[in-house]
Design goal:
Layout: H1 8-20, H2 27-33, H3 44-53, H4 62-69, H5 73-79, H6 89-117, H7 122-138, H8 151-162, H9 174-180, E1 188-193, H10 199-211, E2 217-221, H11 226-238, H12 251-264, E3 269-272, H13 279-292, E4 297-301, H14 313-331, E5 335-340, H15 344-347, H16 362-365, E6 368-374, E7 383-393, E8 398-406, E9 411-414, E10 420-422
Parallel strand pairs: 1-5, 1-6, 2-3, 2-4, 4-5
Antiparallel strand pairs: 6-7, 7-8, 8-9, 8-10
Length: about 425
């Protein structure tokens, strides 16, 4: 597509129509918001419609956008009918930003000419123009922040953390928390294991323990269906084995399962089971959830089957890894992403970051890395002791601790052994 022949109105209509025709909503909207915001639109009505899109969690139509934005439905239809695919969202969004920058440059040039015509002091003219240029550039990306800004607040945060006044997003597994400390806002944590070694079970156990404390959790599952996850949650909470055959529940089992269901109903835990998840999709979903209901933890199971750009697997995983890191910072919420370990991890005695499968830059981008190791060899047992190795913990301790994995009902619990940790220097 050749964007050089398009006007600013074409670009703006193109962005709106791409978002509206997006079959994997809100992926296209997420791509657009990486570059532009409503202030970059020249048409105020189009700006209102674009802003209204950010308030929605479901694919919008013209009537919904009209109601949310206050723009007449006929006008919404007229401005969103440019194309029937979201393929060119990047081109249109870049065009909107370029047009906005050109308008700002034109305004600055006009102010310069007005100042000269009115015989203003040359230094004042240049100072005013310089400020306008700086303001324009700062609205295209992150502004520079002086190092002394916010130092006192940062020091107070350190004191509050040391004094126990800050509530950490702990996993609820006390032995693991003694080493890990807890998940932190704006940081990405990786949980990895070999296939069938319980990484989803541990992630779901952590999500359940955190949600049971009233914290809002979004569990984004690419691997398991909603029905499978619900079944695991119920049986894990009831501590009743999952057996896919008839006539195995006792009356006591049924009572436990009913009690578990009633308890889970009160948890602020939501599950997203969309296929083909991308970073922009996750960002849009998470931001919408945080705005609407609040969000304390995002869990992604698992990053190896996410969609992302790249000419090969290594490049795709590197791009996804960096995207997940940036996602955590933008939504200012802890992100727990699941990953697989490679076959070499089965041969080595101790897990290490090099055992992350198709890792790309995961080792570098992650703030925390937890690796599960199965201690037993051979057939799976209904209950096993697994080791959780914290191999990376930015500004924290590393070490290992045993955890009890009740495979029959997919639940992790503390094990009656002391964790082994080492302080980082």
């Amino acid at each position: 597509m050749n964007g050089s022949d398009l006007s600013e109105h074409d670009y703006e209509s193109g962005v709106l129509s791409c978002c509206l025709s997006d079959l994997s909503w809100p992926t296209a909207y997420g791509v657009a918001t990486e570059l532009i915001s409503p202030k970059h639109f020249s048409d105020s009505n189009k700006a209102k419609v674009f802003e209204a899109m950010g308030l929605l969690t479901e694919p919008p139509d013209e009537l919904v956008l009209s109601e949310k934005s206050g723009v007449h439905v006929g006008d919404v239809i007229a401005m969103t009918g440019r194309c029937e695919t979201s393929t060119y969202i990047q081109v249109f969004a870049e065009g909107v930003l370029k047009s906005w920058t050109s308008r700002q440059a034109n305004f600055i040039g006009m102010e310069l000419m007005d100042g000269i015509k009115q015989n203003e002091e040359p230094n004042d003219i240049l100072a005013s123009a310089s400020k306008r240029i700086t303001d324009t550039l700062s609205q295209q990306g992150s502004a520079f922040v002086p190092v002394d800004e916010g130092l006192d607040e940062t020091l107070q945060e350190c004191y509050d953390l040391d004094d126990g006044k800050v509530e950490l997003m702990t996993t609820g597994l006390k032995d693991l928390d003694r080493i890990l400390g807890g998940f932190k806002k704006g940081e990405m944590s990786i949980l990895s294991a070999r296939p069938s070694n319980g990484k989803t079970a541990l992630a779901l156990s952590i999500a359940a323990l955190i949600a049971s404390r009233g914290k809002r959790v979004l569990f984004s599952s690419l691997e398991m269906s909603l029905s499978q996850l619900r079944k695991r949650l119920i049986h894990s909470e009831a501590r009743v084995p999952i057996i896919n055959k008839p006539n195995h529940y006792t009356d006591t089992d049924r009572e436990k399962l009913r009690e578990a269901v009633e308890k889970i109903k009160g948890w602020p835990l939501k599950i997203d089971q969309a296929c083909g998840i991308t970073i922009p999709y996750l960002q849009a979903k998470a931001m919408a959830e945080k705005t609407r209901s609040g969000l304390d933890l995002l869990v992604v199971d698992y990053i190896g089957i996410m969609n992302g750009p790249g000419k090969d697997l290594y490049e795709r995983m590197s791009n996804i890894s960096r995207g997940m890191q940036q996602l955590a910072k933008k939504i200012d919420v802890p992100v727990l992403a699941l990953s697989q370990q490679n076959r070499e991890s089965e041969k080595d005695a101790n897990p290490s970051m090099r055992h992350l499968r198709d890792s790309g830059s995961l080792e570098q981008d992650a703030d925390q890395i937890i690796m599960l190791k199965r201690l037993q060899q051979g057939d799976f047992e209904s209950t096993e002791v697994m080791e959780a190795w914290v191999v990376k913990n930015r500004n924290g301790c590393t070490g290992k601790t045993p955890l009890t994995f009740s495979r029959s009902y997919a639940r992790y619990d503390n094990t009656a052994s002391e964790p082994q940790s080492s302080r980082l220097h």
